[in-house]
Amino acid sequence: MAEGSGTKKVVLFTGGTDGIGRETLNVLALERDLKLIITARSMVKGTKVAEELNSKFKSVNDQLDITVMNMDLGSFESIKQFVKEFKALNIPLDTLVCNAGVMPYTFEKTTDGHELTVGTNHYGTFLLTYSLLDKLNKSTFGGNIVIVASTTHYSPTKLDINNLATTEAKNFSIQDDYANSKLYNVMFAKELGKRLAEKGSNVKVNSIHPGFTITNLTKNWGYVVVAFIKLLWYFTGNNMSDMAEGLASLTLNKQNETGKYFQLKNITTPSQLSQNEDLCEQLWDKTCEIVGVPKDFTL
Ligand SMILES: NC(=O)c1ccc[n+]([C@@H]2O[C@H](COP(=O)([O-])OP(=O)(O)OC[C@H]3O[C@@H](n4cnc5c(N)ncnc54)[C@H](OP(=O)(O)O)[C@@H]3O)[C@@H](O)[C@H]2O)c1
């Protein structure tokens, strides 16, 4: 049964406290008909962002409506607690933007013991999205899911389904774990879209490379590497406002697209590996095992 709130579209946005997500909220804050829910692992930082948005945009958008809720994507327990609290609000969910992500320089683990990059970017994103599918399916606007991936998803040439993430520090390579996590993001979006369509759901799912810029993502990488990344950005990077426009545009999804991979605002062909249907299915099954949910979901 459809869940209606009235006129406002409820947008749940992860990773809005910094970088590309923070910038995208500057665009979304101008929309009059949205209720924005920002998740934050630090409520202090999340509240500060909400206050800044209110003081900057309330005078031009008196309908601006922002709520901050606590969630750490690197902890299954925190995600489950968030989902419980969100569902207890008894409000609809129309759009979910999974933008939060990490790229740590060294080997670290989530609270559940998984390598931090894959653990946060894929397992956390997967569990959050999976747990909210029933809400999204009831959206009177038609649910919309945006998974923020990256062009780095083109790098992996194979996928080892039994070793989705590095397990020991000595084997860690940030390029590999990050690129793998972003490959899984694209594959997850594809497989989820297929499964939703098979169930007759109208929920739309797309993934996006938001563009390339310097953010906190690489803040602990050391002076020399950061200098190199800055140089790379100078020649190949994107403008932050174009990136924010791209992510905001897919968040609003006025074109009603589904099953696509975007680079900023442009629909693009994702990597061949990411479109391998058998692998997408295997990745789904394996991830369900890891995050501890049934392979088949109910809407
Ligand atoms: N920057 C690029 O060039 C680029 C290129 C391609 C794709 N991307 C993707 O774009 C997305 C945003 O990255 P960004 O560059 O904007 O990075 P960023 O500046 O580091 O921002 C990352 C956001 O994710 C949040 N986050 C990180 N770990 C979290 C956790 N465990 N639980 C909850 N939230 C968490 C951060 O929260 P805090 O504020 O608490 O740190 C922050 O809001 C990521 O998915 C990234 O992979 C970025």
From TrEMBL:
Keyword tags: Oxidoreductase
Oxidoreductase keyword on record: yes
Pfam families documented for this protein: adh_short (PF00106)
Family according to the record: Belongs to the short-chain dehydrogenases/reductases (SDR) family.
InterPro entries: NAD(P)-bd_dom_sf, SDR_fam
The keyword Nucleus is annotated on this UniProt entry: no
MF terms in GO: oxidoreductase activity
Protein known as: Short-chain dehydrogenase/reductase (SDR) family protein
Provenance organism: Tieghemostelium lacteum
